[in-house]
Write a structure and sequence with these properties.
The complex is a heterodimer of chains A (about 180) and B (about 800).
Chain A (H helix, E strand, L loop, with lengths): L1 E7 L2 E7 L5 H8 L18 E4 L2 E4 L12 E3 L13 H8 L9 H14 L5 H7 L11 H20 L9 H9 L1
Parallel strand pairs in A: 1-5
Antiparallel strand pairs in A: 1-2, 3-4, 3-5
Helix pairs in contact in A: 2-5
Chain B lengths: L19 H4 L16 E7 L5 E7 L1 H4 L4 E6 L32 E2 L5 E7 L2 H8 L3 E6 L6 H5 L14 E8 H4 L5 H7 L2 E12 L8 E7 L2 E6 L4 H12 L6 E4 L15 H13 L3 E4 L2 H7 L3 E12 L5 E13 L11 H4 L11 E9 L13 H19 L3 H8 L8 E2 L5 E2 L4 H12 L1 H14 L3 E11 L7 H6 L8 E7 L5 E5 L8 H13 L6 E4 L17 H28 L6 E4 L2 E4 L6 E3 H10 L13 E5 L8 E11 L5 E11 L6 H20 L30 E5 L17 H18 L13 H12 L13
Parallel strand pairs in B: 1-12, 10-11, 14-15, 20-21, 27-28
Antiparallel strand pairs in B: 1-5, 2-4, 2-6, 3-5, 7-15, 8-13, 9-10, 9-12, 13-14, 16-17, 18-26, 19-20, 19-25, 22-23, 23-24, 26-27
Helix pairs in contact in B: 11-12, 11-20, 16-17, 17-18, 19-20
The chains are: A alpha+beta (about 180), B alpha+beta (about 800).
């Protein structure tokens, strides 16, 4: 067993874990963070995507011990403290970018990661950027639209709150921790 | 309270989904999220051999490992595990092999379960699998259908003496629904014969299957990632002998199905047995590889099709000789799946003669069963491919051949040679609209130019004008087809004292948005706000009656049950309202959620007023029951027949074989639309899955029966970067048999799109002498097909190897 400490969605957890434990299993089975799901066993599907130190990772491809001392944001920590949805979550709802919803947590986190690198992506850039996240229901069209809509509203939001205190989005927060 | 202002109709509105809030915040209830105190985790040891006798199993050392509660084999549970049921033996003499959930003496495909560990956590259970000692004596393997049918073939089930499961025939001459197809071919001016291969596919729903079983004394609760909780409960009871009323099945949030979860699985039965053995709760969640290895597959057919026609392009008959790979065992509807296509090989055309013969074949592979469309994509593929081939043979435009033969709008209802009566449609309208959106004539012009200039990137145009039969299904027809159950659906409406509404449905959504759409329907029928309706489903305790979700049936059948239940609520409220208003019930009209006295403006009582009145029951008219709640069960008179025209333009690089979709237009007619946002989503996803069959996906076995495509590395479902933006539109021909005019939509996109894409690929390459490209049309396969055509050789036959 190895002692690790990580902050997940704003809460710090200290745990003893088997070194072989994957981050996604630690999140789901030890911390009860079942909003993040497992869709495959070969790192192809991206359902388990979270932000680790502000960057998108597939949490099935990271050992829990590798996340020691780091900050993790899952889909459960994306909405504001008052429950206000993140613009990406809102856009997924508004554009019907989910059906069964199983890929959705990972897809949303991957989209948040994509937009942190490219705040104004084209359709093709969204399609290339989300290539590592598989969806079987939607044919991706509404997902692409949702990400572009979210980008528009996030750019508008950034412009409006450019001097506001740094609690705009968890993505921005976690990025702040690592940089 | 009285309501004066007009309310906006909910049906037809693009309501955002009620389901989304939990799905986008990670508050979803997937089966694998469930953790019960004392719960054991199961891991399953699976056969590495495609066919073998189990000569020895020793689980002693696994039993002694830390954290292990129980280890058992098929022999340990032989008398209580039950047998996996097949509910659709399509003929009297269908061969029905024994199918134990855990193999007992023999394994017949790789991945078949042979032993189980129950441990404190999933990792300990997996560790213990490695301590199980097992020996196999290999037996000969047969994978290919034609080899399996040949004399002297190794037998999958030696005791059955044959690999043939059944042969089922539909002949319009014998049935009296049309002429003799063989005679039509003999008399024809033009005959086109083709063999098409429907490759094996894997449903690949995103949520792996998971099951939790909690035995509490006599009662047993089962949570499962299933499309069919009601069917699972019934079949667990019938197969294991545990009384039906002691079993409760819950399908919580379910992450996709596409037919892949229209199954009762060995894993469910194994978990059920494990829980009963130990008296403790158990959980089994499969890995993706296990899902691909042992969950059922789809398609896998050889289609020999003959079309006869006159020189002017008028079709005179069609006959189909189908071989269908059952796999090693029969799942819930394995033999019947191709029959769902048996009535559709004539498509939208006026074929006067039709013959269909289908042979089911056992092989040492994972069983096949329903996958999105189930029989109808295969049928539509064959007829739409061969209509293009006929057009090429006659030198006609593929749309011209179709126009010459399709059923005209004023000919509905139309009795087909296959014996169905299509209720409605307007094929010309959908096609005209699709051609307009597509820019058909411009693309044909560009195609000519590219051909003339010898452009290495050729343009192909693919057409698919489809209809399908969905809304499964009229019980009397299911009975005639020897299916063991009916096809009705149930709904009930509970009026709460505050005027809020609970709709209970027997359908079991797993991404289709029933909570939203059913709310819209109930809101209109009852005149209550959309927000005031809660839809309950997927739990045999709260929704005790239902036949679940598959075959685009939920709205087409379940929607009618819901409308009828709502109407009964209104009927029950009428005497209550009349009593409150001190008038005759006949003087009341029900408008926008309120009973109004005709000719007396202002005097009205809402449904909520009536609900409160029956709750208190202080002052009800004599003989009126103290409830407004109502239930309805609806058995459809006929199927639902959506249709449409899909057009696809592909660019095919003749030097690399790369196919890219340049544009895709889908114009569908699914009758009246309840929620256009949801319908469009269903079309997008359906089209994507059809394109996936055309270009990307194939389950492949090696010669020993090992699945080579057992992960998402090898089984390449399309990503966002692989698919185009679809252009969609609708025409609307209301279904005459549905009170809302709605038809099914869940499978239409998948049924339509595969032939549109492959027709486009072939169309691009016809000038090079290519008349067929086997699916999936991967770059290598397209390139090889071009080389073969250039060398004047016919393509090398493909067995199980992956090109």
């Amino acid at each position: 067993m190895t002692r690790i400490s990580m902050t997940v969605d704003g809460v710090t957890y200290d745990d003893d874990v088997e070194p072989r434990t994957l981050l996604v299993h630690h999140l789901r089975e030890r911390l009860g963070k079942v909003g993040t799901v497992v869709g495959c066993d070969t790192t192809n599907c991206g359902s388990c995507t979270v932000l680790l130190g502000g960057r998108g990772v597939k949490s099935c491809s990271v050992l829990a011990v590798q996340a020691d001392g780091m900050d993790v944001t899952t889909v459960e920590g994306l909405a504001g403290a008052d429950g206000e949805l993140h613009p990406v979550q809102r856009a997924f709802h508004e554009t019907h970018a989910l059906q069964c919803g199983y890929c959705t947590p990972g897809m949303i986190m991957a989209a948040v990661d994509l937009l942190s690198e490219n705040p104004d992506p084209t359709d093709d850039e969204v399609r290339e950027g989300l290539e590592g996240n598989l969806c079987r229901c939607t044919g991706y069209q509404n997902i692409v639209q949702a990400v572009r809509d979210a980008a528009t509203s996030m750019r508008a939001g950034t412009a409006a709150t450019v001097d506001a205190p740094a609690q705009a989005s968890p993505a921005a927060q976690t990025q702040g921790v690592t940089t | 309270m009285t309501i004066a202002e007009e309310r906006q109709a909910e049906v037809g509105r693009d309501r955002r989904r009620k389901e989304d809030a939990r799905l986008i915040t990670g508050r979803t209830m997937w089966t694998d999220n469930l953790a019960l105190p004392g719960m054991m985790h199961l891991a399953i040891l699976r056969s590495p051999m495609a066919h073998a006798r189990i000569t020895h199993i020793d689980v002693t050392s696994a039993r002694g490992l830390p954290g292990v509660f129980d280890v058992f084999t098929g022999r340990d549970v032989a008398d209580m595990q039950g047998l996996m049921p097949c509910v659709w033996p399509v003929t009297e003499d269908t061969v029905l092999p024994d199918y134990p959930p855990l193999a007992i003496n023999e394994v017949r495909h790789t991945g078949e379960p042979v032993a189980v560990v129950a441990a404190r956590d999933a990792a300990s259970a997996l560790d213990a699998l490695e301590a199980i000692d097992i020996d196999y004596d290999p037996l000969p393997v047969v994978l290919d259908m034609e080899s399996a049918l040949a004399d002297g073939s190794p037998l999958v089930h030696a005791d059955k003496g044959t690999n043939k499961c059944y042969t089922w025939v539909l002949d319009s001459a014998a049935a009296g629904s049309g002429g003799d197809a063989a005679q039509a071919a003999a008399d024809a001016e033009v005959v086109v014969r083709r063999r098409y291969i429907q490759q094996r596919l894997i449903p690949a729903f995103m949520e792996p299957r998971s099951v939790v079983v909690d035995p509490t004394g006599e009662q047993i609760t089962v949570w499962s990632a299933t499309q069919v909780p009601h069917i699972l409960r019934l079949l667990l009871a019938m197969s294991t002998g545990v009384a039906e009323h002691k079993i409760r099945v819950i399908a919580p949030d379910v992450g996709g199905g596409f037919g892949g979860k229209l199954q009762v699985t060995p894993e469910e039965f194994i978990a059920f047995a494990a829980a009963r053995r130990s008296g403790r709760p158990v959980k089994f969640t499969e890995t993706r590889s296990e899902a691909m290895l042992s969950g059922h597959h789809g398609r896998d057919q050889i289609q020999d099709v003959t079309v006869s026609a006159t020189r002017d392009g008028t079709v005179t008959g069609i006959s189909v000789d189908l071989k269908v790979n059952m796999g090693a065992y029969l799942g819930i509807i394995t033999p019947g799946t191709p029959l769902l296509g048996a009535f559709m090989y004539n498509g939208i055309y006026r074929f006067p003669a039709y013959r269909f013969e289908c042979t089911g074949v056992f092989t040492n592979t994972t069983k096949t069963d329903a996958y999105r469309g189930a029989g109808r994509p295969e049928a539509t593929y064959a007829v739409e491919r061969i209509m293009d081939d006929l057009a090429a043979e006659l030198g006609m435009d593929p749309l011209e051949v179709r126009r010459r033969n399709w059923i005209e709008h004023d000919q509905f209802p139309y009795a087909t040679a296959a014996g169905l009566t299509y209720d409605s449609g307007n094929y010309a309208a959908a096609t005209d609209r699709a051609m307009e959106l597509f820019g058909y004539d411009d693309l044909r012009r560009e195609q000519r130019e590219r051909r003339e200039s010898g452009d290495p990137v050729q343009l192909g145009i693919g057409v698919s004008t489809y209809t399908e039969m969905c809304g499964l299904a009229p019980s009397r027809i299911l009975g005639q087809l020897r299916y063991a159950a009916g096809g009705w659906e149930n709904a009930s409406v509970r009026m709460l004292p505050t005027g809020k509404v609970e709709v209970v449905t027997g359908t079991s959504p797993h991404g289709q948005g029933h909570e939203t759409a059913w709310s819209q329907i109930a809101a209109d029928q009852l005149g209550v706000p959309f927000e005031d309706v809660e839809v309950l489903h997927g739990d045999t305790r709260t929704a005790p009656k239902g036949l679940d979700t598959y075959g685009s049936r939920s709205l087409a059948v379940g929607g009618i049950a819901l409308v009828n239940a709502c109407r009964r609520v209104v009927d029950k409220a009428r005497p209550v309202a009349a009593h409150l208003l001190e008038c005759d019930p006949a003087d009341l009209e029900f408008v926008d959620g309120a009973f109004r006295v005709k000719g007396t403006p202002g005097a009205s009582k809402t449904l909520a007023d009536c609900a409160l009145a029956v709750f208190t029951s202080h002052d009800l008219p004599d003989g009126v029951e103290s409830t407004l709640d109502a239930e309805a069960t609806y058995d459809p008179e006929d199927f639902s027949y959506p249709h449409g025209t899909h057009l696809c333009a592909t660019e095919v690089d003749t030097e690399t074989g790369m196919v890219s979709i340049r544009s895709y237009v889908a114009v569908d007619d699914v009758g009246t639309v309840i929620n256009p946002l949801i319908v469009e989503g269903q079309v997008h996803g359906g089209v994507a899955q059809g394109i996936a069959q055309a270009l990307f996906e194939e389950a492949v076995y090696d010669e020993d029966g090992n699945l080579l495509t057992g992960t998402f590395v090898d089984y390449t479902i399309p990503s966002s970067a692989d698919l185009p933006t679809f252009i969609t539109d609708r025409t609307e021909t209301p279904a005459p048999g549905h009170p809302l005019g709605a038809k099914g939509v869940g499978e239409a996109g998948t049924i339509a799109s595969t032939p549109a894409v492959v027709n486009a690929v072939v169309d691009a390459l016809r000038p090079l002498g290519v008349s067929d490209v086997r699916m999936p049309c991967t770059p290598e396969r397209v390139w090889r097909t071009i080389q073969d055509a250039r060398n004047g050789s016919s393509p090398a036959p493909e067995g199980g190897e992956r090109p």
